[in-house]
Amino acid sequence: MKASILRSVHSVASRSSSSKHLLTRSFGTESVPERKVAVLGAAGGIGQPLALLMKLNPLVSQLALYDIAGTPGVAADVGHVNTRSEVTGYVGEDQLGKALEGSDVVIIPAGVPRKPGMTRDDLFNINAGIVKSLCTAIAKYCPNALVNMISNPVNSTVPIAAEVFKKAGTYDEKKLFGVTTLDVVRAKTFYAGKANAPVAEVNVPVIGGHAGITILPLFSQATPKANLSDETIVALTKRTQDGGTEVVEAKAGKGSATLSMAYAGALFADACLKGLNGVPDVVECSFVQSAVTELPFFASKVKLGKNGVESVLGLGHLSDFEKEGLEKLKPELKASIEKGIQFANKS
Ligand SMILES: NC(=O)c1ccc[n+]([C@@H]2O[C@H](COP(=O)([O-])OP(=O)(O)OC[C@H]3O[C@@H](n4cnc5c(N)ncnc54)[C@H](O)[C@@H]3O)[C@@H](O)[C@H]2O)c1
Ligand SMILES: O=C(O)C[C@H](O)C(=O)O
Asked: Which reaction(s) does the protein catalyse, per the Swiss-Prot or TrEMBL entry (predicted)?
């Protein structure tokens, strides 16, 4: 996928002078449907590079960039990139409806990031309200869109979104996704280093949720196979679980992961768009409504299709260490899910 975005960018740029029609309608011999993507929080640390990466994606025909401030500048800047999509900036609540109308995919990186010493749950008080109001608008203006939730704490913001949509009568569990792709991106990078494998060929499923021990990478299922010691697996697991904190500490008060998150968010949105467009066998890990455990939401491999989630895949065989990790994460994940549900229903 990484390579395919870059290849697409190159091919779009090289076609742009020769055929406007090709730019807006088709790439190669296949025709590509019109797709609108909205980014909410588009002027932020994640939002800006994510806007750029979505502008590079030839599957997007319209890119709506919404934030409470700063989006006209971001849109003017990104809009000069000579790729397929038309970019429009929307600023302030009055323009939120227009930003959302007709969207196929809505990506939400709106809200405050962590500072050193904070957990993701410490963001709940501010971000829960932001997510609730944005999801209320999604229910009104683009109830059929696929929602990619990036705002933390994902373990709670996804259940909040679900409750808001239920209240509005628009909930479709196939269309709501917590973006956990960054955990997969990290697990792949760290594993490739230890396994001495080409990172582009590495696959590692990551299950559970998106905070601390709720992030459970399944290195026993990693490919290519490598004969890593138990000690190495424990260290890789811990590094993946603490990946966000590693960045928060390195940034020393200037926020959390933005660039790697934008990359991960762009990968996941691309997978959603491919699924919508009928590309077969698109599988990514995501935090979705799930029956693979007793918890109502859970991250695991998900097959994406024309309506969003086509199927939630099972967990496969777990090592004893992973089975233990799975049991340990459940109480924390359950509490975070319930906290989100309660918040959404209290007002
Ligand atoms: N899911 C993940 O893996 C993952 C990874 C990294 C960060 N995050 C989370 O993403 C969120 C954003 O992080 P960031 O570094 O981009 O933060 P940031 O502060 O740089 O940007 C957030 C943006 O949200 C905007 N915003 C605030 N309220 C809004 C509202 N009501 N409507 C629209 N926009 C609004 C702000 O104006 C700002 O531009 C944080 O909650 C962070 O914890 C999640
Ligand atoms: O760690 C954070 O607070 C941001 C994000 O969830 C991450 O995993 O990088």
From this structure: (S)-malate + NAD(+) = oxaloacetate + NADH + H(+)
